[in-house]
Model the fold of this input.
Amino acid sequence: MNIEEFSILTFLGSTAAGFLGALTGLGGGVIIVPMLALLLGVDIRYAIGASLVSVIATSSGAASAYVKEGFSNIRLGMFLEMATTFGALLGAAVAGMISTKIIAVIFGIVLLYSAFLSVRNHRPATIEDTPDFLADSLHLDASYPSLRGPVAYHVHAIPTGFSLMFLAGTLSGMLGIGSGAVKVLAMDRAMRVPFKVSTTTSNFMIGVTAAASAGVYLNRGIYEGGRPNEATELP
Done:
């Protein structure tokens, strides 16, 4: 494959990843990493690093529109970002210590489990739900616009959601997927946030999570003690 073919395939795949990432709140990394690693033969560590950088741009573009329209729960997103950022730093550090085969296996397991959770029935969030004391204390409850006017909702299970967000950040740093798949499912399933709010708030959060881990990959990929890091050298 020559450079022109590589560039065209990368452009087309990245365009599709950006569209789906903005639409679903997944960030696009779930498409970019497999495309680069499996289809185009790029070393998976380079694919992860490139995915994280692209996810930052995707998140920034989509999040600005969703915030303007009033769908994103900014207060909830900023609160949960504390967990995902620390998790992203940990995941990026761990990724440099394990083999690419283990990373690939974890990537597959995460995608399969996310798909499994997505098809399970769950109880939809309604304003009739009993407010959560911690969410009420942190003023995390909000509303989103609809054709019938603003729809209010309550946020639930704050400790569970916060813990899952730390896991989401760790997977983001390790796999380069932006962790949108885990974030959306955590907010939608555990915290019972409406799906529209889950996807848009995930887009708002993904850029910060990806930026934290991308910095680790950038530092590792340039120099370590005056020499390129062996973990990122091509075979």
